[in-house]
Amino acid sequence: MIQVLVSVGSNIEREHHITEGIAALKELDPNCRCSRIFEAVPVGFDGPNFYNLVVELHTDLSLEGIMAALREIESRWGRERNAVKFRDRTLDIDLLTYGDLSQPSGPVLPRKDVYKFAFTLWPLAELCPDQVIPGDSQTYQQAWDAFSDEQPLWPVTDFSL
To answer: How high is the pLDDT of residue 149?
Structure first.
């Protein structure tokens, strides 16, 4: 079984779509683990705040298979495949890592979001603090400790899975 880390986000009917997205991911791995849910302002556009979290699951699906499964879950909840990149989302699920695979293209792994966004890195540091980032020498906790971007982000206390 391959460990897969995915980010999950929504800023449209957030509680509903996050709950449904996690339920769908549990169909892939009933024992998946979830970070806390965080609220973040949108990056790159104006809109309602997002709820974000990271989910760890284990699968025997190929890289192509897990990517197709994640796209199907997004589509099931209204994600348009040809939509503009920076816009409101019912459900956004991004593959962050696939095992220890590190590759520069097709898709880039680990996804650059791991280093770029607080709403990805903080949940990763909570969920897998001592795990080394594929292709890197630092752990998720070390990367979070060194993260310097001032992105507004806070734990959600009134909604949990």
So the answer is: 79
